[in-house]
Request: fold
Amino acid sequence: MKQIECHNLETAYAASLNRPILNKISLEIEQGEFVVLLGLNGAGKSTLLRSLVGLVSLEKGNIYINGLEITTQTLPKIRQDVGMLFQGGGLIRQLSAIDNVLCGKLGIRTAKQTLFGFPKRDRQLAQELLEQLGLKEQIYQRTSLLSGGQQQKVAIARALIQSPQILLADEPITGLDVVASQQVMQILSELNTQENLTIITVLHDLGIAAEYAQRAIVLDTGKVVYDGKCDNLQSHFTQLKDYKKMS
Ligand SMILES: Nc1ncnc2c1ncn2[C@@H]1O[C@H](COP(=O)(O)OP(=O)(O)O)[C@@H](O)[C@H]1O
Ligand SMILES: [Mg+2]
Reply:
């Protein structure tokens, strides 16, 4: 059994695209892999990641996480195992860093539990995570006041507070400067090697992809067109349909 198995995923036909957004995607990922998801804008990368946390309705196909098929019944359990960094961070801007991190617990706790505030040990854990990520000074700051790199770290802490086995990251370094990009990639890399977290991340920089990931999956118009080592990624790109259309 592989940790993640996608069998023939197909979304509804999208008239605007003349095809389904995901068009018969099959792939398997083992625990502890560091996979980069590549492809031009509109290829379906975000949709594929979102499907792994049950946010996309599928016409066909199934997804298994740790052998458990994603259904409305299994989703709460599966969401505990799969953390997600949304494109742009997806933080609540007016909340402090620590409160954003605590939001990562909302999916797990019942409304009634949350009504009485988060337990002390959750706050303690959120604080520790932020400190480990180098945000000791920013714990109580509004996230709208933080830099892009710091916001991405808060988003990482929010995903980690549920102790996931899998971390999905949608363009975690887009818009960050070189130093912040390296810091974020380094954090993902350490989570992978030290905690054996499975990482699937969407990136646009082929050089950074090859530096950190062991495996690349390239999407083009909703299909997997390459799945393999990160050698010579540029050559796989020049063969993409959309790439040819543009050049
Ligand atoms: N909910 C939706 N309804 C209709 N079209 C969508 C929806 N989500 C995404 N799309 C379209 O599907 C295509 C793939 O989107 P996306 O997965 O965001 O691509 P990528 O992340 O690779 O840029 C895009 O053309 C986008 O406009
Ligand atoms: Mg995207």
Q: What stands out?
A: The chain has a mean pLDDT of 92.
